[in-house]
Amino acid sequence: MPADTIVDWNEMAETDFRRTLRDFIEAECPPDLRGYPHRFPAQVSMPWYKALHRQCFIAPGWPVEYGGMGLRPERHLIFIEEMEAAGTPWLHDAGVRNLGPAIIAWGNEAQKAFYLPKMHAGEHIWCQGYSEPSAGSDLASLQCDGRFEGENLIINGQKIWTTSAHVATHIFALIRTDRSGKKQEGISFVLIDMSLPGITVRPIENLSGHPDFCEVFFDNVTVGATCILGEPNKGWTVARSLLGFERIWAGSPKRAFKVLLSLRQQMEERGLLTSDYWRDRLAQAIFDTQDAQDMYAGFADLVRTDGAVGIEISALKIWSTATFQRLSELLLEVAGTDATLAGEGAADLLAPYYESRAPTIFAGTNEVHRNILARSVLGLPKSA
Amino acid sequence: MTSVDADTLVLLRDAVGKHAARTADGRAVRARRSSLPGYTPAELTIMAEQGWLAIGLPEAAGGLGLGTVAAGIVAEGLAGCFSADPFHGLFLAGRVLAHAKADTDMLAALAGGEILPALAWQEQPQNFRFPFSPITMLSADGTLNGKKAYVAGAAGATHFIVSATSSSGLALVLTKADAFGLSIHHDFRADGTPMGQLALAATPGVILCEGEIVETALRAALDETSVLIAAELMGHVDRMMALVIEHLKTRHQFGKPIGAFQALQHRAVDMFVQQRLARAVLDTTLARIDGLNDATTRGMLAARVRARLNDTAQYIIRESIQLFGAMGITDENDLSLHVKRCLSLVGWLGNSVEQRGYYMDMAAPLGAVPNGRD
Asked: How far is B110 from chain A (nearest CA, A)?
């Protein structure tokens, strides 16, 4: 990590900060990797990952001493905005994004020294093993079994919907290590090398034809007890602490704005902009998206003033993800029978449709978010 | 206008809130339905004394110069006593006079509640489309002939500001309410407050301004008042939500509060999502509107916030009535006062379809859709 790049990114003027990022992206991010709504195989996007690593831009939220940029939440949000606006490729970065901060917060010195630099350099590619076939929204009911034998932990069971598991070298997983108490207790947060014997990965092709997530099977996989992050049986606390301000990003309307652009282009090409009906539909789409942007900006202001977002952020997630879906469906309506054709690149009208299905499900299904808002914001009684 | 400091707005919100809490009287609102002028003299006096009539008027004319942001807070707060009348009509008249660079004495008299002008611009139910070409004519001899409709505040008005087609294009003409040849017919809105129709036959008037400034002034004042209506709608949305959430917590069926049923919880949350969204758009609009000199940007902003609040109000009405069950369709429930008031507002100065058309008229020449960045 070059010593001459120690800069206080938080104090730099915002315009300079943005320009630094834009210049860097322009210089280092291969143009043919930009603007895709899916992840490339790890080796394809690795040059960009490595460039971010060399510049110490790969882990913007980490403290500077660990090779991060030490960005405060509002700066971090700007960082994400700039990356998204430039269409930089999605990375297999669950490690630096989610696990890194957890190791910094909960790890012992040996864990920090071993895992953080390799994660930073892209030598270790991590995936997150939380969901199981019978533990999705009800995550705390997870069953993947961990049995202590002397110094070791023997793992048996299955994870599913594990993003990037087919390219990952490591998985951080929630494992049930005690069944005696409440379901949130008795879960351990375990760091597992995927080259260990007994691990099988089966990629699952998603609707758009990309293998993005997988099933991961554990058959008597043996790890040392030193692979547990934080206290044994306290993994739920570790996992919950990862839900930071970045939740706001799940509600960003940026994807809907992209569809808006396609909508207008398609309407123009098809000569629909002179029709009162289609003009009205376009105006509705514009309003739904712009209004989401106002809401997003309001929460971003909260991040600026409070360094956090409240529970109400769930409202933004629900609205933005639903808007993304509605717009992707409108795009198909605009295209008429052309919408039945599988296109490629910009002509792929189905891509936004497929892409917009997952966001109402991941980062907490919109229904789980509704449960949260009903109880915590509206103060309604415990559900029947 | 100088930007208003946050403390002033907090104090204002507090003052309006207290006034609304003190004077909210559903029984009186019901008793006043279908009567003229649709508000009590006391209400008007309070608005003048509190400075609310002066809020949107320039300081040079004895106004407070606090702009639409402050007027929006008043309008929203007055939803707490079920209606902001006659606030919108007087704000609209005052703003059009200010934009038309009218005589400052007249504005000062308006600020003090001594004159009560009403803007008579509309002639057709779907008039929210520019350029505007009134059928009402201003003759060479300075008299007006024609008809005007949907004039808020016509009952009780001392003057009318009439838009008319003249030899130089458009004109704004001031007439007295008791001028020769002017007759008023009153219709009543859903909430029982009046809306005037004017017939003008050789009615004498004084020209306030002529030419391009007329449309500029009309559009500006209509945009600003549209935002004000959005603000009042927000007030009603919040109050309907409070009523319905309370009902969900207290109404028992099947041995438990109905708010414990997930089906109803999720409906209530979806209402909350819309409430929160509408609030975000309104806040953004109020923070920006007074600083905008560009008519297109202002118009697009006003159209968007109005469409959002119109649609949100309709949605909250529909869901609130459903969640209240039979109690939702009674006039006794105070929900009904908010429902009827909202119905009186959403179609005035541009329903959502008109707002979207207005927006697209302005957006089309720009040749682009917003990208979320600038």
From this structure: 35
